[in-house]
From TrEMBL, chain A:
Transmembrane segments: 54-73
Basic and acidic residues biased stretches: 1-11
Lineage: Bacteria, Pseudomonadati, Bacteroidota, Cytophagia, Cytophagales
Region Disordered, residue ranges: 1-29, 127-149, 208-232
Keywords, in A-Z order: Membrane, Transmembrane, Transmembrane helix
Annotated Polar residues bias: 218-232
Organism (species): Spirosoma utsteinense
Protein name: Uncharacterized protein
Automatic annotation (TrEMBL), chain B:
Pfam families hit by this protein: Sigma70_r2 (PF04542), Sigma70_r4_2 (PF08281)
Domain spans labelled RNA polymerase sigma factor 70 region 4 type: 115-167
Domain RNA polymerase sigma-70 region: 19-88
Organism encoding this protein: Spirosoma utsteinense
UniProt entry tagged with the keyword Transcription: yes
Family named by the database record: Belongs to the sigma-70 factor family. ECF subfamily.
InterPro entries assigned to the protein according to its UniProt record, in alphabetical order: RNA_pol_sigma-70-like (IPR039425), RNA_pol_sigma-70_dom (IPR014284), RNA_pol_sigma70_r2 (IPR007627), RNA_pol_sigma70_r4_t2 (IPR013249), RNA_pol_sigma_r2 (IPR013325), RNA_pol_sigma_r3/r4-like (IPR013324), WH-like_DNA-bd_sf (IPR036388)
The protein, known as: RNA polymerase sigma-70 factor (ECF subfamily)
Alphabetic keyword roster: Sigma factor, Transcription, Transcription regulation
Lineage of producing organism: Bacteria, Pseudomonadati, Bacteroidota, Cytophagia, Cytophagales
Length: 232, 184
C-alpha cells in the first residue's frame, strides 16, 4: 500500500542523481589525476605477471628442448637383444642374440644361469628355486630371471636352462656366441681350478742385507745363521 | 567504448587511463555515497579500479550501460567491503534517527537540485544510507541486501522505510515537497 509513493520517491531520487554532472561533488578536493598517479604503479604488477608467465613458459620450453636434444643425441645403440630359445626336453636352451630381445616370463622360464666374463649383463635375480624335472631327471639349482633382464652383446657367454614345459619357438641366430654349459659343469670347473695359496710363513736363509725392514708385528721369521763351525 | 575495453583487456596503459578518466568522477560519487568520508571514498575508488583493471579481462562488453553497471557494482562491493572491514556495518541502531539531522552548511545552494538531493542522501545515517543506496539506487532486492550486509530481509525493509521517512522529512524541510509530489 505504502510501496507506491515510496517507489515514486525512489524513482525521483534516481532521476535526480542521473542528472548529476560528471564532476566531483562540489566542496570536495577530489583530483582524479592525483589518484591516477597513485594507481599507476599498482597497475604495473598486474601487467607483469602475464609477461612473467610467458617468460616462464618459454624458459620451460627451451629447457625441455635441450633435454630432448640431449636424450636424442645420447641415445644408446640399438639394444642388444636376448633371444630365448627353448627346446622341448629337460635341457632347454636360451640363446642370447645381438638382434633380438626377449622378455623372459618368470612363469615360463624357470631358471636361467649365465656366465659372463665381463659384467655387462643387467639382470634382476629374484632368487633360487629348484626346478621340477618333468622327465624324472634330477633337480638342478636354477636362478630365476626377471622379465626386465637384458643381456648386452659384449657378454662372452651365457648359459641357461629352462624346463621342458616351455614351448616358445627359437629365434634363428646367425652365429652362436655363447657356450651352453650346465650348472654342474660350472661347479666342476670351480673345483678343478687350482687355487692360489698365500704364504704365511717363510724362512730366510743367508746373511744378506734386507732391502726393506720387516715390521715386528708381522709374522715372525726364523733366521738361521750359517755357521761353518756348527758343521764341525 | 568497445575498443577501449578491448585495449584495457590487453593491458594497454593508455586505454586504462582513458577509462579511468571517463568514469573516475562518476564512480567517486558512488563511493562517497557509501563511505561519506572523502579520503576513504578515494581509497575505495582506488581499490575498486585496481579490481576493475584486473577483472576486465573476464568482462564481456555489450553496451555502455552494461559497462557502467559493471563498474558501479565493483565500486559498491568495494565500498561495502570497506565498511565491513572498518566495522561500520551493520549500524542499524534506533537512536541514529533521532540524533541525526542534516547539516545546513553541507547542503548545496538552491537550484542545484540533483546536488542537493545527493548531499541529503550522503547525510543519512550509515545503516539507512547503505540500505537506501542499495535498494532505491542500485536496484538490489531486500534478500540481496540482507545477504550483503548480513541482516534479515525484515531489517532491510525497516531500514529502508526509516531512510525514506527521514529523507522525505529533510526534503520537505528544504522545500522539495512540491517537487516530489509533482513527479509522482
Amino acid at each position: 500500500m505504502n510501496g507506491k509513493p515510496d517507489e515514486h520517491l525512489d524513482q525521483w531520487v534516481r532521476q535526480s542523481l542521473n542528472r548529476l554532472p560528471d564532476a566531483p561533488p562540489p566542496g570536495t578536493a577530489f583530483d582524479k589525476e592525483r589518484l591516477w598517479v597513485q594507481l599507476r604503479p599498482e597497475l604495473q604488477p598486474s601487467a607483469n605477471p602475464r609477461r612473467r608467465s610467458w617468460a616462464w613458459w618459454a624458459a620451460a620450453a627451451c629447457l625441455a628442448g635441450v633435454v630432448l636434444a640431449w636424450l636424442v643425441l645420447n641415445q644408446p645403440q640399438p639394444e642388444q637383444r636376448v633371444t630365448v630359445a627353448q627346446e622341448k626336453g629337460p635341457d632347454a636352451q636360451i640363446l642370447i642374440d645381438q638382434k633380438s630381445k626377449a622378455e623372459i616370463e618368470p612363469e615360463r622360464v624357470a631358471g636361467v644361469v649365465s656366465t659372463t666374463s665381463r659384467p655387462f649383463v643387467k639382470r634382476k635375480i629374484l632368487g633360487t628355486a629348484p626346478v621340477p624335472a618333468p622327465s624324472g631327471g634330477g633337480t638342478a639349482p636354477t636362478v630365476a630371471l626377471s622379465s626386465e633382464s637384458t643381456v648386452d652383446t659384449r657378454t662372452d657367454s651365457a648359459v641357461s636352462t629352462a624346463p621342458a614345459r616351455a614351448s616358445t619357438v627359437v629365434v634363428s641366430v646367425p652365429r652362436r656366441r655363447f657356450r651352453v654349459v650346465h650348472l654342474n659343469e660350472l661347479q666342476a670347473e670351480e673345483e678343478i681350478r687350482p687355487g692360489s695359496y698365500r704364504t704365511e710363513r717363510f724362512v730366510r736363509l743367508g746373511m744378506g742385507n734386507r732391502g726393506t725392514p720387516v715390521p715386528e708385528t708381522s709374522h715372525p721369521s726364523i733366521s738361521l745363521p750359517i755357521n761353518s763351525k756348527s758343521n764341525q | 567504448m568497445h575498443q577501449l575495453v578491448e585495449q584495457c583487456q590487453r593491458g594497454n596503459a593508455f586505454a586504462q587511463k582513458r577509462l579511468f578518466d571517463q568514469f573516475a568522477n562518476r564512480l567517486f560519487r558512488v563511493s562517497l555515497r557509501y563511505v561519506r568520508n572523502e579520503p576513504e571514498a578515494e581509497e575505495v575508488l582506488m581499490n575498486g579500479f585496481l579490481k576493475i583493471f584486473r577483472a576486465i579481462g573476464d568482462f564481456t562488453y555489450r553496451d555502455e550501460n552494461g559497462l557502467d553497471a559493471w563498474l558501479r557494482r565493483i565500486i559498491v562491493n568495494e565500498a561495502l567491503q570497506y565498511l565491513r572491514a572498518n566495522r561500520r556495518l551493520p549500524l542499524f541502531q534506533a537512536h541514529e534517527l533521532a540524533d541525526t539531522q542534516p547539516d545546513p552548511q553541507s547542503l548545496p545552494d538552491e537550484g542545484l537540485d540533483a546536488e542537493r538531493i545527493y548531499a541529503l542522501i550522503c547525510e543519512l545515517p550509515t545503516g539507512y544510507r547503505t540500505v537506501f543506496n542499495l535498494y532505491a539506487i542500485e536496484g538490489y532486492t531486500h534478500r540481496e541486501i540482507g545477504d550483503q550486509l548480513g541482516i534479515s530481509e525484515n531489517t532491510s525493509k525497516s531500514q529502508l522505510s526509516k531512510a525514506r521517512a527521514l529523507l522525505q522529512e529533510w526534503l520537505t524541510k528544504n522545500g522539495y515537497e512540491r517537487e516530489t509530489r509533482r513527479t509522482s
